[in-house]
Amino acid sequence: MTTAPPLPATPPAEKLTLAVVAAGLLALLLALADADAGRQSLWFYLALALVSGGTLAWSWLKFGGAPAGVQHHNLWLRASTGRGAVAWVTGLVLTGFYVVLYWYSGDDGHGHFGPLDHLVHALDGFSQWLRARPADQWFLYGTFYTLAVLLMGGRALWKYRHSRYQLIRTASVMFFQLGFAFLIPGVLLFFQQPEFYFSYFWPLKYDYLFPGTVTSLLQNGGLGIFMVFWGAVMSLLATPVLTYFFGKRWYCSWVCGCGGLAETAGDPYRQLSDKSRAAWRWEVRLIYPILGIIVAITALLWVHFATGGTLLGQAGTVAAKWYGFAIGSVFSGVIGVGFYPIMGSRVWCRFGCPMAAYLGLLQKHFSRFRISTNGGQCISCGNCSNVCEMGIDVKQYAQRGEPIIRAACVGCGLCSTACPRGVLNLENGPRQGRYQGAQLIHADSLRILS
């Protein structure tokens, strides 16, 4: 019986930085438990400082000082990234946090936020400065989310510093999360304007085209009218046009906050995505019906609105609430992020996101985007398949020299970055040449058979 080789010892400097991160998590627990308001803030900001400094220092030691290039660092042998005990504990903690956040931390009407109350109020000063109002559980979540993207984005910048594409792409998701998904919505609230996320569009931000939301925004004057215009144009016009030229990567890998978290905080788990055909069948069975459901709900709500609210009664509103609970909360949050350490970083994007389904249909049937391959140079190392977070067995395409034109592909480009032979290339070529590699192979096969 063969045994796995022992893992290399962790250098003392790396152990020290990880100890700093652990100390930060301990300080966060103290902030959670301490009833004194002054000490809450002290523990909380100390925790953020320790976690941030420790994470960035560890990232530099692990990747910044190492030779450039994609190194797997025994990912499958480590308990944290190979579905070991550490991964399961991490998954349980993340899942538990989302459960508490969504269902046990709502404002009780007196400014109390359940188990997360002390952490929420520790951010009151920052929230007052940014939004001119006290913090709530969603501001706490947004702060944690944005910090995770920025810190793990720094890790990705060091890890993939040899790839210009990865550097720009990572900087892009960091920019959109910090600016468009965190600071701008806060500034809008500061000036008594509707909270609006300019980087999220229908059908992902499904209520942005609901009649109730549209009506409410239109009542806020010129800015509200612009928000409605922006949401409609980005969802129905700009998305098809941009996807035609660049594929779904323009959004899923460059702009979207869900994708931003997956590409940064979820990067250590990208190799865990299931590459089996059974997983692909489940992907198709889930993601397209979810898109169909939100399209149907949106259409029914508009018909209900157009008929003066007499057609559906409360059915449309109830359907929207159940969709928000089952898909917007359970799937995208609890499962989508909580299951990172077990199922990979793109569980939500792959199996549940209606925006990914919408973009995927456009990409597969109407886009110029493809990943071209050169089968003659492929050495079947499997690096490309290992790093594909969307469960595509890239190696099979590369071996046959077939272009990769899949609805699931988010164009992250890691398959190309990880390839030691330059076999894979992301292209925005003429539509008539998208399938050229496959057609040439098919013609060669027919010629050999004849």
From TrEMBL:
Sections of the chain in a coiled coil: none
Entry annotated with the keyword Metal-binding: yes
Family annotation (SUPFAM superfamilies): 4Fe-4S ferredoxins
Top-level lineage group: Bacteria
4Fe-4S ferredoxin-type domain span: 369-397, 401-429
A Pfam family that the UniProt record links to this protein: Fer4_5
Protein name, per record: 4Fe-4S binding protein
Native source organism of the sequence: Hymenobacter armeniacus
Lineage: Bacteria, Pseudomonadati, Bacteroidota, Cytophagia, Cytophagales
Residue spans crossing the bilayer: 43-63, 84-104, 138-158, 170-191, 223-246, 286-307, 322-342
Keywords: 4Fe-4S, Electron transport, Iron, Iron-sulfur, Membrane, Metal-binding, Transmembrane, Transmembrane helix, Transport
